[in-house]
Every structure is written in structure tokens, then in C-alpha cells.
Amino acid sequence: MTGSAPRLEAWQDPAAAPLVAIKGVSKSFDRQAAVSDVSLAIYPGEFFSLLGASGCGKTTLLRLLAGFERPDQGRLLIAGQDVTELPPYQRPVNMMFQSYALFPHLSVADNVGFGLRQEGLPRRDIRVRVAEMLDMVKLGSFAQRKPDQLSGGQRQRVALARSLIKHPKLLLLDEPLAALDRKLREHTQFELVNIQERVGITFIMVTHDQEEAMTMSTRMAVMNEGRIRQIGTPVEIYEFPANRFVAGFIGAVNQFEGRALAQAGDVLQVYAESAGTELRVHVPQAVVAGSPVVVAVRPEKVRLGREPPPGDNRLQGTVEEIAYLGDVSVYHLRVAGGALIEAQLTNHTRGAAPPLTWGDRAWVGWNADDAFALVE
User: Fold this and answer.
1) DSSP states of 84-112
2) Rounded distance, CA 212 to CA 208, Å?
3) Which of 86, 165, 166, 336 is spaced 20 to 30 Å from 224 by Cα?
């Protein structure tokens, strides 16, 4: 048998040409840096997310791509064309705003076809393309309604159809689901990804919602204080964070500060004072003895019980807090060194009594491979 080589994703292929190339871009407002020396390559067909808290620079970067702002330094290229100095209407880009910006006096069909009418296309061609686009977003029967006769999710789809109807090379989305309630937002996430895959247009989305970015993105860039702290797939960002900021920003994580003691192969022994013991962690590179190291482990990787669990790391503590979230229960245990450790248990059985309660003594544990070491 002969096997075929695994398919490279575009960002893994050195021969692939990016659709968007951001090269050393910086932008300041009132001498305050909003974006600082950002370089980024985004490839055709990606659903790419810029993720970060308010004020991190993600929306400024989106506006720079759209042409609503000009960089103080650096270059912006789209499909190989330098667009740094081009106005928005000369860029092969469309933008979907958080507010949707629909015209309240126009029907759904007229909102969707507005850009085509501005270009002077024949009415028949506009009708055909509008009908096709409304069918794609499942709003064909709503063509004659006004925006105020639609739900939030329907208005979101109208705005999406209007953004896509001119077939831009790149669609920019500014917090596109922020106005929706949680249940509708979760449903719309999958709808939006399915539409993006069908039309094959590259999407760049700004969001502060970690779950949203993880669910929808092929890759994502985590931003903080105007800089990109890590770029990767959702799995890479969550399971292999590059630094303490990313580890703490994406999901929950237990972190134990310590110093490297010894290393055997890819397992590092660390003394963590807050844990009150030595911990073992998998590391891909050599670490000098005495170096400061943070051992980090996600709560769902932590095993919890009344008896010492198997594994490389075991600590005993007292249950201080319990939160029942339906699918999981979250436990906080205080261990001898003073650290408060979070563990999650999946609620497999309906109506079962919790295995532990407040004040109980319990054990937590995890394997070296389940944790990661942070040196930044």
C-alpha cells in the first residue's frame, strides 16, 4: 500500500499566496498606539477571526483593511495589490457592520440589491441576483418586508446578503452576532460558516467572544494592546498557548508559578510553591534548571475524586466552591500550598447526587501530557 501525503492547509504551504498581507502596520490616535507593528497573512477561503478584549486594536485593524483609516506605517495588500492608499470604494472588500446599517425605508429585496443599483446593473439582473442571495440566506419569502418587520437574526442575514451580493474578494465582519441573544447566536454561528463555505469568500471577523471565534474560525489571531500575541487554529490556540496572556484569555486555566528542577526527556520537574509540591509537565524543548516556569492545566483535564487519582500530578485539598452549569459542574479546591484549583466534572447521569460537597476533602490529579509549560 502507498499512502498519500497529508494535505497542507494554505497557511502551511510555503508556495501559497495570501489573499491579505498586512506588513508592519501601525496606527496611533492622539499619540496612543492602537495597532503596533502588526504583520499577518490570511489565505483565500479562510474564516479568520481577530479576537481580543475591547481596546486591543482588532477593530482598528479591520477599519484599516476596509480603508476607513490609513496606517501611520506599513503596507496593506489584497490579492497582491497594494491598497494602503486606496479609498474604500476602490478596494475589493465589503464590510458588515455590527449595527447591520439597513435602510429602514427600503424592503429587504431593495436593501440587498442596493449596491447593484448603485453600479447601474439592469433591473432584471438585479432581481435574479437578489432572489438567489435571499434564497441562500433562507429569506426568499421575506423580500418585501421592511427591516423593522424582521427579527434580529433575520436582519443579520439581510445584512450578510447585501454584503455578499457584489462578490467581494474579502468580507469584513465587525462583531456580526453581538446583537443576537445567546441561543440565536449559537445557531447563527453555524449558518454563517456554512454560507461562507458555499460562497468561498474569505471572511475576517472581529469578536471579543472566545467561543464564537473558536466555533467559526479556520484560524484566529489573539490581540492585546495593539499587538498579535498568537496566531493559530482554535485547537492550537487552546491546547498550545504561546504565552500566559493567551492561556489566560482563552478559556479557564489553572496556573502554578515555579522553577525548573530537572528534566528527563520531554518531562520537566517543577517546584510550584502555590501547589505546595513538585509538578511534572510535558515540554517540547530543553529548559535550564532554575528557570522560572508556569505549569498550566485546563480544568477539564483535571481528575477529581475522594481517592488519589492515577497520574503524574496529585494534590489534596478542600472543596470551597461548586457551580452547577447543567452539562458540567465546576469545583474549586484549596490545596496545601494555597492555590485554588478548578476542576470540571461532566454530569453524565440525570438527577444524580453530586459526588462532593462544600468542605469535603478531595484529590485532584492530571498527567504531565495534559499540562503545558509557559516561560513568558
Assistant:
1) TT--GGGSSEEEE-TT----TTS-HHHHH
2) 8
3) 86
10-residue stretch averages of pLDDT, the chain, 376 residues long: 65 94 97 96 97 95 96 97 95 88 92 90 92 90 93 88 91 87 84 90 95 95 97 96 94 95 95 95 92 96 94 95 94 95 91 87 96 86
Enclosing H/E stretch for 134: helix 123-136
pTM for the whole thing? 0.90
Give the SS3 label for residue 255. Answer: strand
Q: What CATH number does the domain located at 10-247 have?
A: 3.40.50.300
Calculate the CA 45 to chain-centre distance. 17
| Ramachandran quadrant class, 200 (left: phi over 0; alpha: psi -120 to 50; beta: rest) | left
pLDDT of residue 373: 94
- The pLDDT value recorded for residue 3 is 56
CA distance 290 to 269: 11
> What is residue 1's predicted lDDT score, i.e. its pLDDT?
42
Phi, psi of 182 (to 5 degrees): -60, -45
Q: Could you tell me the end-to-end alpha-carbon distance of the chain, in angstroms, rounded to an integer?
A: 45
Report the Cα 180 to chain-centroid distance in Å. Answer: 18
CATH (one of 3.60.110.10, 1.10.10.60, 2.40.50.140, 3.30.420.40) for 255-374: 2.40.50.140
Which sign does the torsion angle of CA 176, 223, 232, 373 carry? negative
Annotated domain spans of the chain: 10-247, 255-374
